[in-house]
Specification:
Chain lengths: 404, 404
Amino acid sequence: MIKVKAPLRQDSRGRVLDIIRATEPTSRIELVRETSLTPASITHLVRDLLVQGLVREVGQAESTGGKPRTLLRLNRDSMTAIGVQLGAASVALVAANLAGDIVGRQVLRGVADLDPQVIVAFLADAVAELIDNLGLDRSTIAGIGVAMPGPLDISGGYLRNVSYLENLSGFALADELETATGLPIVIDNDATAAAVGEYWLGTTDRHAAYATVYLATGIGSGLVVNGMPYRGSSSNAGELGHVSVDFRGAECTCGNRGCLELVAAPPVLVERARQAPPSAGLGEISRGNVEDAMSQLGILAARGNEAALTIIRDGAELLACGIVTLVNLFDVDMVVLAGPGFTSCAAIYLEAAQKALDSRTLARGVHTVRVVPSASPRDAAALGAATLALQDKLERKPVAAAKK
Amino acid sequence: MIKVKAPLRQDSRGRVLDIIRATEPTSRIELVRETSLTPASITHLVRDLLVQGLVREVGQAESTGGKPRTLLRLNRDSMTAIGVQLGAASVALVAANLAGDIVGRQVLRGVADLDPQVIVAFLADAVAELIDNLGLDRSTIAGIGVAMPGPLDISGGYLRNVSYLENLSGFALADELETATGLPIVIDNDATAAAVGEYWLGTTDRHAAYATVYLATGIGSGLVVNGMPYRGSSSNAGELGHVSVDFRGAECTCGNRGCLELVAAPPVLVERARQAPPSAGLGEISRGNVEDAMSQLGILAARGNEAALTIIRDGAELLACGIVTLVNLFDVDMVVLAGPGFTSCAAIYLEAAQKALDSRTLARGVHTVRVVPSASPRDAAALGAATLALQDKLERKPVAAAKK
DNA sequence: TAACTTATATTAGTCACTAAACAAAGTGTG
DNA sequence: CACACTTTGTTTAGTGACTAATATAAGTTA
């Protein structure tokens, strides 16, 4: 039986690093207050991080009546990770440092039509090129995170995609990619990756429970509670796109009826725009990539095109309906909107979702739910994947030079 | 700020007790295998439980070629807890021992019309009477668990109901009940309590993620992952009844549209039965308590009454739709059906839900989701509440006679 | 300059757990 | 029936992550 690693972030070193990232420059005392650990423990943990070079001391703060605080900062470039977003329409690569800054970025053609082995070589090349272009030292690279749409199959110890990218079905991607690149690989659902990325970037309260709604070709969502993603029993939690919003609705490829994705996913909205009569002034919508077309539609809406506005608003209203369901079931404090679908029309979606949450969730009398845009809407999944690789690396022990 | 207790069941003593309860009679070696703790640790933990009287040694097993195992059993009656299910239609009290056996039971009138202080006195009397009737030693009583429908307000450190039982809104029930009874009080959502109860009774795999759908006057659900309930940020997670199954549907009192509860809750089904023409042969449906009426309807359906069957089937079909949404979002391994709504027609609901899950969830290719009936459908919430009280007591340290 | 503050480090524990050796109680074999 | 071998459980002496209490360092204020 495969040994499952405990899914709990109680790891103090990681938590301390999270807090430093979110609040730098900071000091040991502030860490004491944030963590409810004792000064002694913080001294220890910080020393550890200093020795590993993940954190630096950068001078002193003004005294507040006693010894001045020693300021601590993340040593941002002491570690980098690569994030790959393997979408249906396109592939995005980012390199992110310890702070979650995107230090390199590259967009590639989609791989839906390629052979698995070709995909591996293609990705390995792209990663190698990115590392070279940035002049990164390979020894400082934590690993590669790959984010992809679900449903995923985790059996056999490694995640394998089982649906969207059909030719990858049953292929042990992580294994092959690890062999091809020599770097540790983490694979996760795109929405989950995006959700973890927001935490890393500090968009969300560290103690909050929140969901990230990820709008790309499909509609997904990821949940984070206390800094730990909720993945469900097979890493397929949060499939918002296949929540039914109409029990008498049309049948979906997934087998369900009235799925949100059938009425509110970008391809549907874009198609509606393409079908519009010329008089609507939507002629300019691109025939190519869905993400680009969605983006154009959003821009038209922002410019005041009524037809575009109506299409987006209808989509936003339906998505809001799904978000209300999500909140009634998960009872989160915050919802983050992420993914390429939001790049040009986030405001419309934000407003619709916020309005729905303020008037239609069951627990709205107990607490409000805030809707916020992602700190990095377009690259949320890729960046999130990179942060997953960082997190994975940081969770393992310092490996004090395998001495004896 | 209120200190929040860590929501993680990593407490080994509790886990060991869980395993003994589920697999008794068992032995230390088996515990070693189940927990992946070392023999040394198990020796320690079991000694602890023996000293506290929660567990007994009961002879030996057959040898398997070496020293025979010393068999361990729960000391069932060394601890008892009271569970109260504060429903809209009725109040149920149970007393449960360490094994989750119901050792006493009492059903009371509903309290929706009473004054808060009167409710407290009423409950305190009922609890005292139950304890006396059973001849229980007060010192062995772990506490009282109260399960009630949401939404709940946890602010101020104590849960207070904010909706269904309107006269309890804003009333610090836990505080008052503790004063009146002298016993520690735990309050939780009815569906969450029911879910924890199933775990306690061993209906579910200890490692599985599962949801309990609780059908009473409303429709709720509770989620348990690795033995720990998921409550969301304000203990209002799992409100399945207010998941919208029709975005164009009628407006619900909760503010949302097309809520599942509007079309599939027992009061709705019962009302439909009452409106049926006399020719349908449904004349016998009681005018009183919704739960009784629902039960009668189920019995008529089981006897083959077509009209009753149709009403229940329609309800089951709609509930199944909500359950598919629940599973697509939470990605659980198992769904347990609990609550008074299922008592007489569980089979119809089970079949509808299982069929829907087998054909309509997104991750069905990755793993199947089993639907099972509760081990104690009618008393699931009350029993669950009792187990919450037990769990709460057991999680605190032995309290070695406040010396010094 | 002494007295107070505030920030950090050290020391000596505690707690939950483990590794390794040991003891106890059976079975099988020559 | 003595001896090896299994299997189960215990003991002893740790380890790692944390804390409480005390010490030290580096400022400010009276």
